[in-house]
Specification:
heterodimer; A: 288 residues; mainly alpha; two-stranded antiparallel ribbon; globular; B: 228 residues; alpha/beta; Rossmann fold; 6-stranded mixed β-sheet; 4-stranded antiparallel β-sheet; 10 strands; 27% strand
Chain lengths: 288, 228
């Protein structure tokens, strides 16, 4: 029973990781860009929501309506005018630039908000739960898991069925040829970045209501997101979701033995995948 | 409808095309021939907007397009079938054709019309483009270009690496494409194929025009093709 509970909590935890990892996975899938600023951006979004709540917004949920479009717009601009210039056969320029962006965001947040731990409040909802037998399920983690499933479902639908999704897949196959069929690859990349940034903004606010955060919390989030992406398979959205759930379950099950094993167990499983199944669960050919 | 006016194209410091001028009249056809490395593909890329022009002008339907990015030229009606087909490999054949709707151009070449013209493509519509044979890929690449209903179709070595029977089928479609009002500029290594398709021939040698004219003598073309 103890393990069943741990597995259920782990799946719920995985929902949050999935929301985080989705944007990272999407950007990599579309433009082979690993965004090291992903974690810092999530925390930036959480502080954005905090700022709005302090300024008189009723709830962080309402603040999402502002934070998500703003961060998404930032994604468009950043991709179009900065990251676009780093795209090349070598992954190094984009790694360096996004790493630099992460440092800038963290230090701006440190100067502006200090290193104190903050948390977003939902008026009791963040701790409310219900019982099924002996299982206690938190409403908030359940909601986050649902949001993750819906977000990934919508994104998968867009990718598979819409003209925009078709062009996104075309651009990751052969970008120069996309311009021959009348679409601007830079615009498509930038919209994809906006989608990824919007997703990470949702994830950041979700994280901010789940537990306390400070300007440097993003580092660990980035690692979790990475691990989920690698376990699931680079560039595959549902693979990433599966990877996130596995990571969450492994962490919480390990923590039932000893709470300090939480992070370690996740890292170990990640390394096992990296060694024995480097393409992840859902294999998809990736050209670097 | 297309005027290429004295263009130079460089790859870094290396000149690929020098002082080339040519014209494609409305509804007309022109074949550019030349050996490997003569600059034929570079010329097409410059016209399509994939390769910047160092000097000179490209005028399309009276509009100077020299500085326009490729996707805007595609929307104006310049469509290229690139060398080596370059289909979107992970997309199905039909999805490949649909990408060309990004030009937002309408005309006679609807999906249905293209399928009717290329039954081979219609048969493979649900297959992934990466799984097609060379001939099927080439037909799909031409079909994709047609879906954008181009005013000018640029064909880069469409016969390369294909069986003679397939080459024949592909060249048979050229008059039909012209009937719909599309002008054609084609690049070809095979002189016979080129002169059969087009009375007007433009020969490149090491990036420069070595001969250009109508109904040229094969001996003259051979000399212009190989130099000397």
């Amino acid at each position: 029973m103890q393990y069943l509970n741990a597995i259920v909590q782990g799946i719920l935890q995985g929902g949050l990781y999935a929301l985080f990892a989705a944007g990272l996975s999407y950007m990599f899938g579309v433009m082979r860009l690993v965004n090291l600023a992903h974690g810092a951006l999530a925390i930036l979004a959480a502080y954005g929501a905090l700022f709005l709540v302090d300024a008189g917004f009723v709830s962080p949920l309402l603040a999402l309506l502002v934070v998500v479009p703003v961060i998404a717009a930032l994604g468009y601009v950043l991709q179009r005018f900065v990251l676009q210039r780093t795209l090349s056969d070598s992954p190094l320029p984009s790694l360096l630039v996004t790493f630099g962006i992460a440092i800038i965001i963290q230090n701006v947040l440190l100067l502006w908000q200090t290193a104190n731990t903050r948390q977003l409040r939902l008026g009791g909802f963040e701790t409310a739960s219900f019982s099924i037998g002996s299982l206690r399920i938190g409403w908030l983690p359940l909601l986050i898991l649902l949001v993750a499933v819906v977000a990934l479902g919508v994104l998968s639908f867009v990718q598979a069925r819409t003209p925009f999704g078709r062009l996104v897949r075309a651009v990751s196959d052969d970008a120069p040829i996309v311009s021959l069929v009348g679409a601007n690859p830079k615009h498509i990349y930038a919209v994809a970045a906006a989608i990824a940034f919007g997703l990470v903004a949702i994830a950041g606010v979700a994280f901010g209501v789940t537990r306390g955060f400070d300007p440097l919390s993003g580092d660990l989030l980035l690692i979790y997101a990475f691990e989920a992406v690698i376990i699931g398979g680079l560039g595959s959205l549902w693979g990433t979701f599966l990877g996130a759930i596995i990571l969450g379950v492994v962490q919480t099950v390990a923590a039932t033995f000893d709470t300090t094993l939480f992070d370690l167990a996740g890292h170990v499983v990640f390394l096992i995948f990296l060694i024995f199944l480097p393409n992840g669960i859902i294999r998809r050919k990736v050209r670097l | 409808m297309l005027e290429v006016d004295d263009i130079d194209v460089y790859y870094g410091q290396l000149p690929a095309i020098r002082d080339v001028s040519l014209t494609v009249p409305s509804g007309g056809i022109l074949a550019v021939i030349g050996s490997n490395g003569a600059g034929k593909s570079t010329l097409l890329k410059a016209i399509a907007g994939q390769q910047p022009v160092k000097s000179g002008r490209i005028v399309f339907q009276g509009k100077d397009v020299t500085q326009l990015p490729a996707y805007q030229r595609a929307r104006l009606g310049i469509s290229m079938v690139p060398e080596g087909r370059r289909l979107f490999r992970s997309l199905t054949v039909e999805e490949n054709l649909l990408t060309a709707r990004a030009t937002k151009r309408s005309g006679p070449w609807t999906l249905e019309a293209v399928y009717e013209r290329f039954p081979l493509v219609a048969e493979r519509r649900t297959r992934r483009a990466g799984d097609l044979s060379g001939g099927e890929q080439q037909a799909t690449a031409i079909a994709r270009a047609l879906v954008s209903n181009p005013e000018l179709l640029l064909l880069d070595e469409v016969s390369l690496g294909l069986a003679p029977k397939i080459i024949g089928e592909i060249y048979e479609s050229i008059p039909i494409i012209r009937e719909q009002g599309t002008s054609i500029l084609l690049v070809e290594q095979d002189v016979q194929q080129a002169t059969k398709a087009s009375r007007d021939v433009h020969c490149l040698l090491q990036g420069r025009t070595s001969l250009a004219g109508r109904d040229l003598d094969l001996a003259d073309i051979t000399r212009a093709y190989f130099g000397g």
